[in-house]
Amino acid sequence: MEDLLEELLAECRPYTQQGTLANYIPELAKGNIDDLGIYVQRSDGRHYQVGDYKKRFTIQSVVKPILLLLALLDNGEEFVRSRIGVEATGKPFDAINVTDQSLLSEHLNPMVNMGAIAMCSLIKGATYEERFQRLLDLTRTLAGDPNICLDEAVYQSEKRTGNKNRALAFLLKSYGLLQDDVEEVLDCYFKACSISVNSKDLAQVGFVLANRGKLPQTDERIFPSRYAHYVNAILMTCGMYDGSGDFAVRVGVPAKSGVGGGIMAVVPTRMGIGIFSPGLDGKGNSLAGAQVLERLSKRMYLSIF
Ligand code: GLN
User: Fold this and answer.
1) Which of 12, 37, 131, 145 fits as disulfide partner to 53, beta carbons 3.0 to 4.6 Å?
2) pLDDT digits over 233-246, tens only?
3) Of 103, 93, 255, nearest in space to 162 by CA
4) Which DSSP category does 241 fall into?
5) In the chain, what are the domains?
6) Contact at 8 Å (CB) between 36 and 50?
């Protein structure tokens, strides 16, 4: 397995140059385009890692499945389902999901920005500070890494420039899909996206989803197995946005990407995979990261189809 990962690293490193750093969040444009890290956590307890797997980057949209898990834990499936739909949008992550001049909760998807902003308002907590803290705590627990914290520079950068997300949040508000103060909800969303992680953290979170809610090593249950079913299904259909169909054909496992360059992949019952490579394709997914996953899937028969 070590040899295979080293081979994939060498084969896929050239692809890093074909991607583009996200520059609509100015701080992300400072990333190193050559970075490529891979971490695999297997269900037999073994883990394998190569390349820049220790490098930290912001979680960005890979926080969305964690937000969804917390929303489910706080409110139950029925309530969450009534507030945020599950249909794939087939659109970019920052798309305005308005259908025929109406916007209903069923038009939202938790894996794209509008749905994720709405999800921040479903998290329990007396203040939005407390809600974010609870999300950070859950991220630390799932990743088994108590040192995970906020990247203040990326948070400030995104808060300063995130006017598209502001527009999406005001649209939600105007359609009655957001009850709370827009700036407070957005602040929580921007902080959520700016949590600093590495490939190992993503592999660990992916593993808990693959392991139906139980942590590796201790087997402690963090969420009901039914929630893994719920989240993984949505990852499969919309985790890579309007690239989800292509990813399903090429790789065939539930996964979530973020514009920081992370991809978390879930191979049900078998493994969690964390990839980091900040060069993105036109849809905002890590270009070299998808190449690694495609090759790994073919070599290890990972596709669930
Ligand atoms: N924070 C980013 C945004 O809202 C997350 C998008 C992403 O990772 N695709 O624009």
Assistant:
1) 37
2) 999 999 999 999 99
3) 93
4) G
5) 2-54+196-218+228-300 (3.40.710.10), 61-195 (3.40.710.10)
6) no
Q: Which atom of ligand 1 is nearest to the CA of 93?
A: 9
Whole-model pTM?
A: 0.97
State whether the beta carbon of 60 lies less than 6 angstroms from ligand 1: yes
Q: Is the CB of 77 under 6 A from ligand 1?
A: no
Question: Sheet containing 271-276: which strands, arranged edge to edge?
Answer: 47-51, 37-42, 271-276, 262-267, 255-257
pLDDT tens readout for residues 208-227:
999 999 999 899 999 999 99
Q: What is the pLDDT of residue 43?
A: 95
Distance 193 CA to ligand 1 centre (A): 7
Q: Nearest C-alpha to atom 6 of ligand 1 is from which residue?
A: 61
Proportion of the chain in helix, strand, coil states, percent, rounded to 5: 50, 15, 35
Q: Best substitution site from 21, 91, 94 to test ligand 1's pocket, by max atoms within 8 Å of Cβ?
A: 94
